[in-house]
């Protein structure tokens, strides 16, 4: 579709050892380009919204990233 901006989250490795990660969206319709992978240096996750599945109106959700020892929640606002 036209006029749908793409956004991303960069997952990066601060150490020397590659690590596994998982990513999950907290609301329906929030689509991630990858839901798991291995980070050697960095990995870009693209985010878009499938409006046919998203909650009606303005909504916000989270992308939950889980890695070696830390979980990170990134707030996403869908307008």
Task: Describe it.
The chain has one domain (7-78): Immunoglobulins (Immunoglobulin-like), CATH 2.60.40. The model has no long low-confidence stretch (mean pLDDT 86). The strands form 2 sheets. A 4-stranded antiparallel β-sheet has the order 4-2-6-7, with no helix packed on it. Strands 1-5-3 form a 3-stranded antiparallel β-sheet, with no helix packed on it. By secondary structure, it is mainly β. A hairpin with a 4-residue loop joins strand 6 (59-66) and strand 7 (71-78). It is 0% helix and 56% strand.
Report the end-to-end length measured between terminal Cα atoms. 16 Å
CATH homologous superfamily designation: Immunoglobulins
**Backbone CA Rg:** 13 Å
User: Architecture, according to CATH?
Assistant: Sandwich
So what's the overall shape?
Answer: elongated
Percent strand equals over 45%
Largest sheet: 4 strands, antiparallel
Assembly status? single chain
As for the CATH topology, it is Immunoglobulin-like
Give the helix proportion (percent range).
under 10%
The total of beta strands comes to 7
Mean pLDDT: 86
Count, helices: 0
CATH class: Mainly Beta
């Amino acid at each position: 579709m036209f006029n749908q901006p793409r956004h991303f989250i960069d997952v990066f490795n601060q150490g020397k050892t590659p690590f596994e990660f998982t990513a999950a969206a907290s609301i329906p319709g929030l689509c991630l380009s990858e839901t798991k992978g291995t980070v050697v240096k960095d990995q870009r996750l693209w985010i878009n919204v499938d409006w046919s599945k998203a909650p009606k109106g303005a909504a916000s959700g989270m992308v939950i990233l889980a890695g070696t020892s830390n979980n990170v929640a990134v707030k996403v606002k869908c307008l």
